[in-house]
TrEMBL record, chain A:
Gene name for this UniProt entry: sdhC
KW Transmembrane (keyword) present: yes
Family: Belongs to the cytochrome b560 family.
GO cellular component: membrane
Cofactor: how and how many bound: The heme is bound between the two transmembrane subunits.
One Pfam family from the record: Sdh_cyt
The keyword Endoplasmic reticulum belongs to this UniProt entry's keyword annotation: no
Matches recorded under NCBIfam families: succ_dehyd_cytB
Record's protein name: Succinate dehydrogenase, cytochrome b556 subunit
Keyword line: Heme, Iron, Membrane, Metal-binding, Transmembrane, Transmembrane helix
GO biological process, one term: tricarboxylic acid cycle
UniProtKB/TrEMBL annotation, chain B:
One annotated GO molecular function: metal ion binding
InterPro entries: SQR/QFR_C/D, SuccDH_FuR_B_TM-su
Keywords: Heme, Iron, Membrane, Metal-binding, Transmembrane, Transmembrane helix
GO cellular component entries: membrane
Source domain of life: Bacteria
Segments traversing the membrane: 28-51, 71-89, 110-130
Stated name of the protein: Succinate dehydrogenase
Major localization class: membrane
Record organism: Mycetocola manganoxydans
Length: 110, 148
């Protein structure tokens, strides 16, 4: 149940970010100054923390999405769905431990 | 006045018996695109946030350097199409689950379809018509290869 709730919420959140992200990237077609001004806001401490949340949402949605696919197509998928949920959580923690320190150093040391 | 409730899982309209089963292909699309998107998105996040100085290194010159290569152009365009259609179809599922009333549902779906179509068009045009060395722009904002 919670895996489903989280999958929905992260899916919607990523979708809305994607809409904004395509628009900000499209500014490369306007001028270097316009793009640099907007991307500069992505490099502030507050946005840096937001990016950790965003990456966390994407990584959860990705790993849990693969879990959904295994439940659907792997003959033992339903039997191991709970185990696989804990695997998703474990992989999420490992990925975020690799990402978060490096990203925060990049954000706060510039 | 007695109120009646539909039996659980009563479909809004009955499944069609002949022709293309779009709902099934949508279901398959969510899974196929999901697998491909894991590779595309993890690669995107790794290249842009983990390598070098990560997010602090991103500027016009960084994007110009990446899109100088057809490899990253096609990577990003594939990600654009797959993610927008996957996300748009996922949002359609949410509208089907939560929005009440035929008019509201139709309005939401038109809005989703329009956003997805416009952004796919915009994003594809940007990637393929992008000029990394626009004339008359300060050289320090451009990729280093523009000087050559
Ligand atoms: C990283 C790779 C991804 C994987 C493996 C993945 C996988 C999945 C799967 C398997 C579903 C379930 C579909 C169903 O039940 O029929 C789903 C739903 C969804 N996905 Fe993704 N997805 C990924 C990326 C994305 C992205 C980038 C977005 C946003 C643009 C997104 C937005 C959604 C939404 C809104 C739903 C609907 C949620 C629901 O029905 O509860 N996903 N995803």
């Amino acid at each position: 149940m919670w895996s489903w709730v989280l999958h929905r919420i992260t899916g919607v959140a990523i979708f809305f970010f994607l809409l904004v992200h395509i628009l900000d990237t499209a500014l490369v077609r306007v001028s270097p100054e316009a793009y640099n001004a907007v991307i500069g806001t992505y490099q502030t401490p507050i946005m840096g923390l937001g990016e950790v949340a965003l990456v966390g949402a994407i990584v959860f949605h990705a790993f849990n999405g693969l879990r959904i696919i295994l439940i659907d197509f792997w003959s033992k998928g339903t039997k191991y769905q709970k185990v696989m949920f804990y695997v998703v959580i474990a992989l999420w923690v490992i990925t975020m431990l690799g990402f978060t320190p490096r990203h925060l150093i990049n954000v706060f040391s510039h | 006045m007695s109120q009646t409730l539909d039996a659980p899982r009563t479909p809004v309209r009955p499944a069609r018996k002949k022709g293309v089963n779009w709902e099934k292909w949508g279901w398959i699309y969510m899974r196929v695109s999901g697998v491909v998107l894991v590779v595309l998105i993890f690669g995107h996040l790794f290249m842009n946030l983990m390598v070098g100085d990560g997010v602090s290194a991103i500027d016009f010159a960084f994007v110009g350097g990446k899109w100088a290569s057809p490899f990253w152009q096609w990577w990003d365009v594939a990600m654009l199409w797959l993610a927008l259609i996957h996300g748009g179809n996922g949002m359609r599922t949410l509208v089907n689950d939560y929005a009440r009333g035929p008019k509201l549902r139709a309005a939401f779906k038109v809005a989703i379809l329009a956003s997805v179509a416009i952004l796919i068009l915009l994003g594809t045009l940007v990637v393929f018509t992008f000029d990394p060395c626009p004339v008359g722009q300060p050289a320090d904002l451009l990729p280093s290869f523009c000087a050559a």
